Amino acid sequence: xxxxxxxxxxxxxxxxxxxxDIIMLSEFCLVTSTHSQPIGIGYMVLSECLSRNSxxxxxxxxxxxxxxxxxxxxxxxxxxxxxxxHNLISIITSYTAEEKVEMRQLSRVWWHKYLKNMSTIAxxxxxxxxxxxxxxxxxxxxxxxxxxxxDDSSSNTAPNFLNPLYNSHVDGFTAVILxxxxxxxxxxxxxxxxxxxxxxxxxxxxxxxNKEPPPAAEWPQLRIPIRVIVSNENKLSNRFYPYEDIDxxxxxxxxxxxxxxxxDELEFGFQVWRENYDRIVGFPGRIHSWENSTNMWRxxxxxxxxxxxxxxxxxxxHNYFNYLYTHTMPSDxxxxxxxxxxCEDIAMNFLVYNTTNKSPIKVTPRxxxxxxxxxxxxxxxxxxxxxxxxxxCINRFQKEFGKQLKTVEFRADPVLxxxxxxxxxxxxxxxxxx
Length: 434
Hints:
The protein is of the alpha/beta class. 33% of the residues lie in helices and 17% in strands. The chain contains twelve helices and 16 strands. The strands form four sheets. Strands 8-7-6-9-14-10-15-16 form an eight-stranded mixed β-sheet. β3, α2 and β4 (55-60) form a beta-alpha-beta unit. α4 crosses α5 (118-133).
């Protein structure tokens, strides 16, 4: 019965044994491929070794290993040139216990992530095409060779070589406002947004799980309908969730207390984003700098001409980054943000820069976004601790992402801004100062 005996093998003494069980119990598994063998035999044996977490010992006869342009097979397998195959035993016994553990861990990761079935093979192939098509897309070399826990229940994410970020259709923007319990200032923000010509939709993310949002009759009556999304959990990452209601490429993230921006400033910011859709384009600029005394990066909110971050309390960005933030950004960064209720804007800046290799753009000269009467000794102390914490975020995220944010000295202002001409000629008449 072929079906019942498909896994049976016989040794030279005609002793019958179960082939998969033998591989699973073996540290090493011999893989050969010669020109006399049918095509695919070597790959089949390699798959059997990887699926049973046995280290492949590959006799190299010039055949191509799967995805060998990205997977460094000598890290997970023993590769022996054909002319040295007579030294096989001495070669495999030279590996230490620690090296064998690392090789088996890596081969297990490769099997589950890249080679397990047609779905993972197809997704890996598209991922490789993606990296060749868009070289700047975040995919550090360590991605392919990292030893991390494998979640068999999770599916590989789709590649982005055809993603909307690189095939954008500009059709206005969706404003996403994260709020908790500041309905008065939120209403002011909504009224201001409603006058911006390119606004297409408003989403209010209600983060207060202990209080229901006001009834519909109390909300501002606007030309653009308001969609209120009630969160199940109060966390900052709700700001960057790829909500189905967002059907524009452009998202304007706003805090519920940013009441000072004018209609012209917001419209101009969107028009700048249209020409820079792979960047964060916004209003509150910040910078980070290296401190030799601490050998660490320091977050700075001083008013300077240099900018390395644009805060997402008032910023335009592509909706695709919501997908990346939620589904592909390292989960421990999201967990850190949600646990400490801080630094989600810094994380998004790192994500965008490491994805596109492009710094954010600050628009218009406005630098003050908080009330001047709020300055006192207590708040200054709190502000200092806030700076220290956010400096820690920058250092932490830099290690996670790999590339540090780049500082630029650039600001986008409307043409003829501050020119001494008739106001009727200006397209953007109400651009705020500091």
